[in-house]
Structure formats: C-alpha cells, structure tokens
Write a structure and sequence with these properties.
By secondary structure, the protein is an alpha+beta fold. It is 31% helix and 29% strand. The chain has five helices and seven strands; from the N terminus they run βααββαβαβαββ. It has helices at 13-26, 43-50, 87-92, 109-123, 138-146, and strands spanning 3-6, 62-69, 74-82, 96-100, 128-134, 150-157, 160-168. It has a four-stranded antiparallel sheet, with helices on both faces. The protein has a three-stranded antiparallel sheet with strand order 5-7-6. 35% of the residues are buried.
C-alpha cells in the first residue's frame, strides 16, 4: 500500500465519489465533517467549498486533503486541517479531523494519513497541534499517540468523554 495526500480535483472525482458513497451508505456520522458539508454530487461546487480561506459563519480557515492508495487507485480517507483554533475547536475539535472509509479501516491508514497531515501543519506554520477523539474510540487514540500525541486531559462534551492530545512539531 502506497499512500499520498491529494487535493480534490476532477482527476480524482470518480475515486472520491465512490469513497463518499460507500461511507455514507455505511454511516451517517462521517469524520472529518468537512468532506460532507456540501453535496458531492455537484462535484465542481463541492471542490470549491472544501477549503475555507477566510473565517466564515463561525468556522476557521481550513484545508481538506484526501488520502489515495496509489497501488489500488482508491481514495481511502480524508483529513481536514484547521489553520488555527477557535474556542470551540480548542475544546472539542482540534487542528486535524481525520477518517478512513469503512472498507479500509484497520490497516494503519489513519496513522500514516495523520503523519502526512502533520507535515501540512508544519508548512502552515503550526508548531503545536491539538487532536481530539472520543474516549471510547481506542483506534483513533492509538493513531494520535503513534504520531506523538500526549494526552493533556479529558473533558465531557454533550454527554461524551473527549480526550485532548497535543503533538509538538518543533
């Protein structure tokens, strides 16, 4: 398996749509949320709406990347990088939201994808990255820890326990 992060483009429309169709038929709660905030069936509009370059409607600027397995030519996941933290993101969102399509889970993709996302964070000048996950999401916690995440604390958010991890990029 050879992975790389890509930006959404017409070149990858088939692979991205296939991944999103699978994901949404299996689960209604897709992470990162940024990949489903717009309808992907109008792909040109979808591409334009993926990244926020300016703060808008309570959201901070962000960048969205898709993870491609170049050996199978399949889109296997996605990451959304928030360029800085709002108060809400400081509590329960962090800098990076990531997810792997259901059929590709359990193969180490998230760990590698987060590593790539951390490289993007460095390019953006982010020295310290916050990642969060629900306490009962053990697989997510493991991928964060494998990328240098250090648990700062746990908070209760809307009845669920959220773990907050910091990754030092200096």
């Amino acid at each position: 398996m050879t992975l790389k992060l890509i930006k959404a483009s017409k070149e990858y429309e088939k692979q991205i749509v296939e991944m999103l169709d699978e994901w949404l038929s299996a689960e209604s709660d897709v992470t990162p949320w940024a990949i489903v905030r717009e309808d992907y069936h109008d792909f040109d509009k979808y591409i334009k709406a993926l990244d926020l370059s300016e703060p808008k409607d309570g959201y901070v600027p962000d960048s969205t990347f898709f993870c491609m397995d170049t050996e199978t030519d399949k889109c296997v996941g996605a990451v959304n990088i928030r360029h800085y933290l709002s108060e809400a993101l400081l509590d329960h969102g962090g800098h990076i939201g990531d997810g792997v399509r259901p059929s590709a889970r359990g193969r180490g993709i998230a760990t590698k994808m987060i590593s790539f996302a951390l490289d993007e964070c460095r390019r953006l000048g982010i020295d310290r990255v916050l990642m969060t996950c629900d306490k009962d999401n053990v697989a997510s916690a493991k991928t964060i820890i494998k990328n240098g995440g250090v648990l700062e604390n746990e908070i209760v958010d809307d009845g669920r326990v959220v773990q907050r991890y910091w990754i030092d990029l200096k």
